[in-house]
Q: What sequence folds into this?
């Protein structure tokens, strides 16, 4: 299994500002994913981040709003730009498939509140 | 009982009873399924998985059943404990196996 940490664990931000969330994995992984989980909702995939290539965004998510970096096989960042209250969510980093198990593992999440 | 509304469906069970959480998946091409448990303030945690060549798999106190004919998954928890209180998500790997697509989730509430 992979151990994933995220920073910050939570933040309160003002509208119009940007926040960069960091995701660190304890092993090298090819595929990393960023999810959003709005209050009381399920997980929605924002984008897939593979090292050495541009992130692939899902419908409804754009690079200008959620720029992603993937500088190496153990680290990624997601920036939430020009925030509005509607961006208040939990943002989750995930890795997988890892090895033969094909399971996705999740970080603890970053709880964002935009005022 | 179980209810569906604007928020997550909730299943309330008495401590010690068995729980059954259901999930309908969408993609008939999915061949790998996972149940996740998400406790308050934490990320989803892997519980148990099942591949499409199986219809049942058992873990410690948990059993997953797969019915491919009707695209249905269920998670059974035996002797439900207060620590089982959480939101449970099923996930399928229908997106060409690249990542998992999550179901809407069910909140399990264990009553003393």
A:
């Amino acid at each position: 299994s992979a151990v994933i940490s995220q920073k910050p664990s939570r933040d309160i931000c003002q509208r119009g500002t940007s926040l960069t969330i960091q995701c660190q994995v304890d092993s090298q992984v090819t595929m990393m994913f960023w999810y959003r989980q709005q209050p009381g909702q399920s997980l929605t995939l924002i984008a897939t981040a593979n090292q050495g290539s541009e992130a692939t965004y899902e419908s409804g998510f754009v690079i200008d709003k959620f720029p992603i970096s993937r500088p190496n096989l153990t680290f990624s960042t997601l920036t939430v730009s020009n925030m509005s209250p509607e961006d208040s969510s939990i943002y989750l980093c995930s890795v997988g498939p890892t090895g033969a198990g094909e399971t996705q593992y999740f970080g603890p999440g970053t709880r964002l509140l935009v005022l | 009982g179980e209810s569906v509304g604007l928020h997550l469906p909730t299943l309330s069970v008495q401590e010690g009873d068995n729980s059954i959480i259901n999930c309908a998946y969408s993609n008939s091409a999915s061949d790998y399924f996972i149940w996740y448990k998400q406790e308050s303030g934490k990320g989803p945690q892997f519980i148990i998985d099942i591949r499409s060549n199986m219809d049942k798999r058992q873990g410690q106190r948990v059993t997953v059943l797969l019915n491919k004919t009707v695209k249905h998954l269920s998670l059974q928890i035996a002797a439900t404990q207060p620590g089982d209180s959480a939101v449970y998500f099923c996930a399928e790997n229908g997106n060409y196996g690249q990542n998992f697509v999550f179901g809407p989730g069910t909140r399990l509430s264990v009553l003393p």
